[in-house]
Design goal:
The chain has 123 residues and is an all-beta fold. The protein has strands at 2-7, 10-12, 18-26, 31-39, 46-51, 57-59, 67-72, 77-82, 91-102, 107-113, 117-121. It has no helices and eleven strands. The strands form two sheets. Strands 2, 4, 5, 6, 9, 10 and 11 form a seven-stranded mixed β-sheet that branches.
């Protein structure tokens, strides 16, 4: 079993910045992809940013140019630097880690979710 824990959320004024952290621990084989998702009240959960262990990243259009995802593979940790925050960024942010068990002939994939950290952007 792998545990995923997010931290770094809080209250920030519009235009401000926050840095979220996500740490995966436990019986890890090899963390492949890690991603940040968010869910606002009354809305569906959406992908914010993702990164592979090799450094390839993807971003939602709404956060491009403002958010940056990074990885520390040695610590099984992902970060989300959020700049120029807007009220519409208010949501609970969740981290997902993809664990990869490598066999000689195939792979087995496992997804693990954190419990979320709340971000509120308000004056």
């Amino acid at each position: 079993q792998v545990q995923v824990v997010e931290s770094g959320g809080g209250l920030v004024q519009p235009g401000g910045s926050l840095r979220l952290s996500c740490a995966a621990s436990g019986s890890i084989f090899s963390i492949g992809g890690m991603g940040w998702y968010r869910q606002a009240p009354g809305k569906q959960r959406e992908l914010v940013a993702s990164a592979t262990s090799g450094g390839k990243t993807k971003y939602a259009d709404a956060v491009k140019g403002r958010f940056t995802i990074s990885r520390d593979n040695a610590k099984n940790t992902a970060y989300l630097q959020m700049n120029s925050l807007k009220p519409e960024d208010t949501a609970v942010y969740y981290c997902k880690a993809n664990d990869v068990e490598v066999y000689g002939w195939d792979n087995r994939l496992y997804d693990y979710w954190g419990q979320g950290t709340e971000v509120i952007v308000s004056s």
